[in-house]
């Protein structure tokens, strides 16, 4: 997103580019024409996630990529602090979640009804609004897991347009199975920690975990279908190609992502 997964203008722009995060709305993505810098946006270090059943383990959550960051090539161009941050570790799925290109032109994921917050509560319930694989009981989002270093996570926060100055999440939006520390605020995406089911581990000796906590960037505001940005299409096509080679289910990619991403 040069500012999940996906607020990008091109793959060569870096987080030091000037971005307009404070004026991002439900209808617009941050642009590269303002004077708000990534340093200003992220000047306040985010507080640690509260300790819960999802975050109490020794390992921090893995990053669940579902948009153009499905491509390890793109991840390597963004996460430059630690080379291992862009090495794919596993294919995983979020059961009952749904994938779409939102009205701003980038990928988003919608949680199951019991986890919806803010605008999602009014608009994420209808399966007719988003791409699905099968009926409501078969909904799932597949993604690639990465183990990002702390500095690379901060870099990716900039690409995703995370608003560190957003207020703490409302207590009524705290639900079991999800950690959401902040409101989305003026950001393009918010950071959630949820549990994902691992479909396939890649070259990870001894790791047989079936479920893991994952970090997911979620746009809580733009939850309706829209056409993809022209610049986003080739990057998503690369992401689909590379992730399918890694083990992302090709049938799911064709049924869910392909209708929104032309060749």
UniProtKB/TrEMBL annotation:
- The protein's name is gamma-glutamylcyclotransferase
Q: Which domain of life is it from?
A: Eukaryota
The UniProt keywords, alphabetically, are: Lyase
Q: What is its EC number?
A: 4.3.2.9
**Gene3D superfamilies, per the entry:** Gamma-glutamyl cyclotransferase-like
**Entries under PANTHER family matching the protein:** GAMMA-GLUTAMYLCYCLOTRANSFERASE (PTHR12935:SF0)
The record lists the organism as Aspergillus vadensis (strain CBS 113365 / IMI 142717 / IBT 24658)
Among its keywords, does the record have Lyase?
yes
What GO molecular function terms would the record report?
Answer: gamma-glutamylcyclotransferase activity
> Record-annotated residues binding substrate?
63-68
Keyword Lyase assigned: yes
| Alphabetical list of CDD domains matching this protein | GGCT_like (cd06661)
Q: Which parts form a coiled-coil structure per UniProt?
A: none
Q: Which InterPro entries match?
A: G-Glutamylcylcotransferase, GGCT-like, GGCT-like_sf
Q: Where is the active site?
A: 160
